[in-house]
Amino acid sequence: MSVQLFGTTLTTNNVAAVVVAVVVLGVGIGATATGVLSGVGLDGATAQDQSLSTEVTLQSSNSSVAIDGSTTYDVVVESADGGVGAYDFAVTVDNHSVASFENVEVYGGSPTETTDVTVDDDGSTASAVVALANTSDTGSVTIATVTISGDNTGASELSLAVNALGTEDGDAYTVTETSGGTVTVEMDDSDS
Known about the structure:
By secondary structure, the chain is mainly beta. The protein has helices spanning 15-25, 33-38; strands at 2-5, 8-11, 53-59, 64-66, 70-81, 86-93, 99-106, 115-119, 125-131, 138-150, 154-166, 174-179, 181-186. The termini are far apart.
């Protein structure tokens, strides 16, 4: 059996992902992001899915940035098995007088109807709630990139919270560990 939805033919193997999409659409009418994904079983692994576990980390090739410059950090699922079809995360700058988020770019080609990306007005938190993503099925998978700008000299920890993470078939991952990062903002040497 197959169903045509959002211009994509879905089979019975990924009908769970359609359920996620329908529930995520409820975000616009007042459901919370955590409630949305937990309502479809993505808030923890079931007994048969205990083998689906992974770490989620922030990774950057350059954790230093000049004032008024920017750098990026990838949000990486370290060991996917079944791809990443749904996710809900937030990254916070612990000292947002030093740095602030500018943008979040999500990966996996999810439809705009099932994607909610937010950067707080003060730039202290960047978050994404995504469903119906289609990523690499195994190994290390980058699900998003956050862009951070340097505001004042100093350093700040970056905290990562993963509220929900699921496969493309709708099975929940157990997130065993999250690792944030540090950003250091320095004076621009070219101004000297």
